[in-house]
Amino acid sequence: MQEIITPEAPPARSTFAVIWPWLLAVSTAMVSVAISAMLIRPLGGLFLFGPIGILALLALVVGFLPSLVSLAVSAVGFGFLSFAMASGNAHSDFVFTYLSRLVVFFVTGVVVILVMGSERRLRQRAQAERLLAERSRLEAERAAAAARASLAALHESEERHRALAEALREADRRKDEFLAMLSHELRNPLAPVRNSLYVLGRAAPGSEQAKRAERVIERQIVHMTRLIDDLLDVTRISRGKILLQHGPIELCELVYRAAEDHRSVFEQGGVTLGVEVPVRPVWVNGDGTRLAQVVGNLLHNAAKFTDRGGRVHVTVSRAEPARACISVSDNGAGIAAEMLPKLFDAFTQADRTITRSRGGLGLGLSLVKGLVELHGGDVRAESDGPGRGATFTIELPVGEPVASNGAASVSREPHRCSRILVIEDNHDAAASLAEALALGQRNVRVEVAHSGSEGIAKARIFDPEVILCDLGLPGMNGYEVARALRADSAHRDRILIALTGYASPEDRKRSRAAGFDRHLAKPLDLKTLDRLLAELCGPARPPERVSAA
């Protein structure tokens, strides 16, 4: 039996052997696409022989496509090579020749792409470094500018703090000097007062020693009162608490009276005082009391800084049609040029130590400046230097003249009130005031109470015509006493006079609102009190005549 021989079938190819070239091509294409995405740049010329080289050169000129074209061709070639090798195609030589050229093209393209990619990466890195350097430079400049601004602000803040600290040190130094001066000036009058009291206790009444001691006590009390008043007035001016009572003032008469009031001070110091006023009156609109205080302070200052045998001259004139001028000149100690700009500052003197010989708190000229400015005027000081005297000049706006009606003032016989009640918690002050009120007066009875409730009880029994009441009483104060007395029909019409160390306009308004008729500041001027009692009690009644039987 003839054996049938069938041709042997070719061995079956594995699936992996078929698809691995395609996987390689796709993977290579993906890598090439990724590289191309980063290296998008014309590759320049690429010399290859044959039609494939020309096509590759055109692809390289386009820029992005060379890697895609080469890889696509490579993928096709590798696939075809795989197929040919597997099938044993007779054209394998052609395929290998084609693929060899294709591999050369592919490798050359990859090398060119890598080289150009490296160059681009280097250029991008250099550009990034330049940008980073520029950014760093700008940031450094901004940081330097901010640092310079911070340093300038810090320096300015330090300067402000240094100036503030210096001002605080200066203020603290001036405060310490002022407190030392205040202690010195207040203690100075106490020594002669105490010595004079010792003399009065041992000298014969009415003797020359007793009279001299009395004059010393009176002068020192006036001096202490002036110091305290100046201190309070400067404080009120600085806080805007001074209220002026404006009215027409004849300046010549005001200056003449102020000079006469201070003439005794000049006589005691051996200083000649001269006054020169024009024939025609000079009118200003102002507060007569405050203007007299201004002139008095200038006179007191001139007397203080002029040695024995010196001269002080006061003049009144018209500086211009709308200004009145008061000038106080002396040939005394003079003023240094560096002191002139700050002469009117509070607590300022040419010699501000406690060893100075002139005395005073350095408030007088500051008070003058404040009061003059409240009147719309100005004040200035001039001096040629130490030992060459000084001149103080005040200019005030001229006011409208007041015509005199020629009526003579009617003088009245003072009537001394017969019953006076003093309500004062300070026993010494109450006793001394009661003695002063009764001294030299006929038919005057004075009773004393030391508390508000005691004063009301004594008023109901004693039935006084005038009640002098301290406001700062313990327990029931003076305001409550006044309201209680005004509420009592038996004492509703009695004269109530407030006695207090508080003398501001607000204090006066408060005492008047409580029911007081008058408000007197301590220490009392007994002459002023006598005039006030004569005014409030009315004219004297003529004595009754008894006809003979």
UniProtKB/TrEMBL annotation:
* EC assignment: 2.7.13.3
- Could you confirm whether the keyword Amino-acid biosynthesis appears in this record? no
Q: Which PROSITE patterns match?
A: HIS_KIN, RESPONSE_REGULATORY
Q: Which CDD domains match?
A: HisKA (cd00082)
Q: Which InterPro entries match?
A: CheY-like_superfamily, HATPase_C_sf, HATPase_dom, His_kinase_dom, HisK_dim/P_dom, HisK_dim/P_sf, Sig_transdc_His_kin-like_C, Sig_transdc_resp-reg_receiver
Q: Where is the Histidine kinase domain?
A: 181-400
| Gene Ontology molecular function | phosphorelay sensor kinase activity
Which key words are in the record?
A: Coiled coil, Kinase, Membrane, Phosphoprotein, Transferase, Transmembrane, Transmembrane helix
> Which residues are annotated with the PTM 4-aspartylphosphate?
470
Residues annotated as transmembrane? 19-40, 52-78, 98-117
The UniProt record lists the Response regulatory domain at 419-537
Q: What class of enzyme is it?
A: transferase
Mind telling me what this protein is named? histidine kinase
Which organism's genome codes for this protein?
Answer: Polyangium jinanense
Q: What is the lineage of its organism?
A: Bacteria, Pseudomonadati, Myxococcota, Polyangia, Polyangiales
